[in-house]
Design goal:
The complex is a heterotrimer of chains A (about 260), B (about 290) and C (about 350). Chain B is mainly α and about 290 residues long. Chain B is built from 11 helices and 4 strands, in the order ααααβββααααβααα. Chain B is globular. Chain C has about 350 residues and is mostly helical. Chain C is built from 14 helices and no strands. Classes of the chains: A alpha/beta (about 260), B mainly alpha (about 290), C mainly alpha (about 350).
């Protein structure tokens, strides 16, 4: 099994403070990996490093054996990294379907001139894009919302739409930043199914940040634990659950 | 250009620069607290200048009274505008607020044209005479202007950094919501900011009249824009920044004029602004704000 | 029941017919108005120019969500480019001889030149300026606009030859902007904006407005789109400038002060940012209003500014919000509503029978 994502000795320093230091991870094809840790451990910072929002002070990120150094967020998305955000960042004033079709932008080929002159390729591609967006929405039972304004959707659907929007860019690796935040147990259950479905149906790897342990332990094959910007443990859910260092990081040191 | 001429021009520049700096402070403070580019600020100076003109030229009041009147009217006008035009829009889109400010600015300009007449009003200089410092002839006006503005800026730094009201202002500009939760009255703090900013504009108008001895309905618009440029150049929200920005622009204008390009001085000001913003988008002393992802 | 939908060619046909009707009405009214017709013609031409200016600024301001304050600069560049070109052609003689048809190719070339020159300036200014956001973008574009004006005023003294004629003005420009010309170019400009906003590029531009970071994360090349929208908007402003030059006949740099940019911005915000219809309506109202208030001469500008403040206080989202008008959609809605009504009444009668 070849790895999709590989980070080696990733480190980033903000104003003299190392937010992430010596971060290593491997995500294999078709794998769901969890990234956990207490608040402020640097999990989202890792996502920002992977997507090129921040530039690492040192270290290497490779996607399918390709070095991503120096690439912008946009270029990394074209390479195959898509993400969701901790605080939902939808295109609120656009319709649900436009939120999705927007992701096809770079794979649609008609030019400005073709758009101005309304040449056949414009019609063909627009029609195909609409159909694909509806298909994607259908997979997640969101078809009925297609013409709604994204900002008017209920919270859970907004989170789901953000995932659909990321998937629509046809990624190899999907980064989910606290997908279950603010959801009740039933919704979380539902989300777990969805995430499994995404992996099976789209054949992609998923790296997710989550605080909900039932979700993490339930669907992740591997887990990496961060604390104060450093990896303190890596392994299967069972190993992590038993790891005393992890327990200490979450619950504090046992007093004798 | 001889050395003494250069120094004379520099002092000229510092004089104009001090007026810019005083006005820039008003922009900077208001921008810092409600993120509004208060277009009407320049026109408040215009109203202040008319007050001085009428007090001295028409009613022959002593200069001290005229100055007090200008500051008082400017302050009241600034707070009035804030209460009537800006407070109701606090939760509206920021652009609507900006357009309102533009509207108020138009209104003040056109209102002044109606009330005071469209022509320029000229008056006798309030401060005359000069002093020879070595080879250089320095007018008293220049000295008074520079000293007054520097003194005011030091005083303002003290108010903002040390007093309770100043702390409230900084808290509101940092985080409006959190400041309110800490029991700071938003309305009072914002009005206070406008009052201080407008009072400074009042002082600015007096100093402006000392230098140029003319008032016209449209005098505020370009002066306002230049002062805002000064505020941005120095780093918006920063008191020493506004001062540095104001002096930079004043000196720059004086130097450009000194080498015979006075027609180009507006372009020079904006060119410097553009270059600075491109290399240091927050100005000389501005804080860097990174959006949290 | 299937919803009633208009086919795209039908929509185009409807709009073309409506535009033709509008043109006929305007022409008939103007020619029927006799002496006053000249006065109305002038207002209508100004309205057309302002519509192009407002809707073009709306592309950057409303759709892209940026705040540029240098639109008058692009208008100025376009105006001078078009005017200098037209002066070098025999257009003036042709117009004097009444040979209007022969001027058409020159007009087309002038408009294209204006658009290209303004677009070039848009590119030169946009690339550095668009790295900044919000009020910083506003102030930097304001700066560029002012620089353009100062350069237009003083360039002759530096270059040593007659080019813009500085503050004394570029005069005797062939007056080629007839009502027909302005009508056609207004329609073309509106159509160009419309088709731009009905493509994948629209989604990209709107997504940048809504959330730039998210737009980048789904692979939208934000730099490209911001620059493209900015240049497009500048080009249209250039066209407006060119038509303005051909209407007014003489150009002065002082016309293009930053207050002119503000005036255009006011039209956009008042109409509702992101609403093309709003921009059109407020361009019409804000051009006609000062004219109608002419009898109050002294109070006219006071009333105008007061109206502006009151409008913002009571309708901060602008006249139209982000609502955009589409004749096709309106017809669809009406037909669908009527059908629904019919179905309901049929149901009711059936229920009543049962």
């Amino acid at each position: 099994m070849s790895n999709v994502l590989k980070c080696e000795h990733l480190r980033v320093v903000f104003g003299g403070l190392a937010a992430v230091s010596d971060f290593n991870i491997e995500v294999n094809e078709n794998e769901i990996v969890g990234l956990i840790g207490p608040n402020g451990a640097g999990k989202t910072t890792v996502f920002n490093l992977l997507t090129g929002v921040y530039v690492p002070t040192s270290g290497v990120i490779t996607l399918c054996e390709k070095d991503l150094a120096g690439m912008s967020t946009v270029a990394r998305n074209h390479e195959g990294i898509a993400r969701t955000f901790q605080n939902i960042r939808l295109f609120k004033d656009m319709s649900v379907i436009d939120n999705v079709t927007n992701s096809f932008n770079t794979r649609m080929k008609y030019s400005m001139a073709e758009a101005f002159l309304r040449l056949p390729r414009y019609w063909r591609e627009e029609k195909a894009a609409k159909k694909r967006a509806l298909d994607l929405l259908h997979v997640f039972n969101m078809e009925r919302y297609a013409e709604e304004k994204a900002g008017n959707l209920p919270y859970g659907s907004q989170r789901r739409l953000e995932i659909i929007r990321a998937l629509a860019t046809n990624p190899k690796l999907l980064l989910l930043d606290e997908p279950a935040a603010g959801m009740n147990p039933a919704e979380t259950e539902n989300l777990m199914e969805t995430i499994g479905k995404i992996r099976d149906q789209f054949h992609i790897s998923i790296l997710l940040i989550e605080h909900d342990m039932s979700l993490v332990m339930g669907i992740c094959e591997k887990i990496t634990v961060l604390n104060f910007g450093e990896v303190i443990a890596q392994g299967t859910p069972e190993e992590i659950q038993k790891n005393p260092v992890v327990i200490e990081a979450y619950l504090g040191k046992k007093r004798d | 250009m001889t050395f003494s001429l250069l120094i004379a021009q520099l002092i000229n520049g510092l004089q104009t620069g001090s007026v810019y700096a005083l006005v820039a402070l008003g922009y900077s403070m208001v921008y810092g607290i409600i993120k509004l580019l208060n277009f009407a600020h320049g026109d408040i100076i215009m109203v202040g200048a008319y007050m001085v003109y009428y007090a001295i030229a028409s009613f022959a009041l002593p200069p001290v009274v005229a100055i007090a009147l200008a500051v008082l009217v400017s302050t009241l006008l600034g707070v009035f505008v804030e209460k009537v035009a800006y407070t109701p829009l606090r939760s509206a889109p920021r652009l609507s607020l900006l357009i309102t400010a533009i509207g108020v600015s138009f209104l003040l300009e056109n209102g002044a044209q109606l009330v005071f007449g469209a022509d320029q009003k000229s008056m006798d200089p309030m401060i005359t005479g000069s002093i020879m410092l070595g080879q250089i002839n320095v007018s008293y006006v220049a000295i008074v202007t520079i000293v007054v503005s520097v003194a005011i800026m030091i005083l303002l730094s003290f108010v903002v950094n040390k007093t309770k009201a100043g702390k409230a202002m900084r808290a509101v500009s940092e985080d409006m919501g959190a400041a309110q939760l800490m029991g700071i009255s938003l309305n009072r703090t914002i009005s206070m900011t406008f009052a201080i900013g407008s009072a400074l504009a009042g002082v600015g108008s007096v100093l402006y009249l000392c230098a140029y001895t003319q008032a016209s309905p449209t005098m505020g618009s370009m002066l306002g824009i230049k002062a805002f440029v000064a505020a941005v150049l120095g780093g918006i929200g920063s008191i020493p920044g506004a001062m540095i920005g104001g002096f930079t622009i004043g000196v720059l204008e004086a130097l450009v004029a000194a080498i015979g390009f006075s027609m180009w001085k507006d372009a020079a000001v904006f060119l410097v602004l553009i270059i600075v913003l491109l290399f240091k988008p927050t100005g000389f002393l501005g804080k860097k704000i990174q959006e949290k992802v | 029941m299937r919803k009633f939908k208009l086919k795209t060619p039908v929509r185009y046909l409807i709009n073309t017919v409506l535009i033709a009707i509008l043109w006929t009405v305007i022409t008939l009214v103007i020619s029927g108005a006799g002496l006053k017709g000249e006065y109305y013609r002038g207002i209508l031409i100004t309205i057309g120019i302002n519509i192009i200016l407002a809707t073009s600024l709306n592309v950057v301001c409303g759709y892209l969500g940026q705040l540029p304050l240098g639109h008058a600069g692009f208008m100025a560049v376009g105006a001078y480019a078009g005017a200098i070109f037209m002066k070098s052609t025999p257009a003036a003689q042709l117009l004097r001889a009444g040979n209007n048809a022969a001027v058409i190719p020159y007009i087309i070339i002038a408009v294209i030149i204006s658009a290209l020159v303004a677009g070039l300036f848009g590119l030169l200014i946009g690339i550095p300026a668009l790295r900044l956001k919000g009020d910083y973008l506003a102030i930097i574009t304001l700066g560029f606009g002012e620089i353009i004006r100062v350069v237009l005023t003083n360039i002759d003294s530096v270059l040593g030859f007659k080019f813009t004629y500085g503050a004394s003005g570029l005069a005797r420009i062939p007056k080629f902007t007839s009502l027909n010309v302005i009508f056609i170019f207004t329609v073309i400009c509106l159509f160009l904006i419309h088709v731009f906003m009905k493509s994948r590029h629209r989604r990209a531009v709107l997504s940048i407005r809504d959330n730039e970071i998210a737009a980048e994360s789904v692979g939208i090349n934000t730099t490209f789109y911001k620059t493209a929208a900015f240049v497009f908007s500048a080009m249209l402003a250039g066209i407006a400038g060119c038509l303005y030059a051909g209407y007014i006949g003489s150009l002065y740099p002082s016309t293009f002060k930053f207050m002119k940019s503000i005036e255009i911005l006011v039209m956009v915000v008042l109409g509702g940012m992101g609403s093309m219809l709003g921009s059109v309506i407020s361009a019409i109202v804000l051009t006609a209003l000062p004219e109608m208030l002419r009898s109050f001469s002294d109070y006219r500008m006071v009333a105008y500014s007061l109206a502006l403040v009151l409008m913002m206080l009571f309708r901060p989202k602008g006249l139209m919000g982000t609502y955009d008008f589409s004749m096709g959609n309106t017809i669809e809605n009406i037909v669908n509503r009527i059908r629904k009504g019919k179905v309901k009444t049929e149901k009711k009668t059936e229920e009543a029978k049962a």
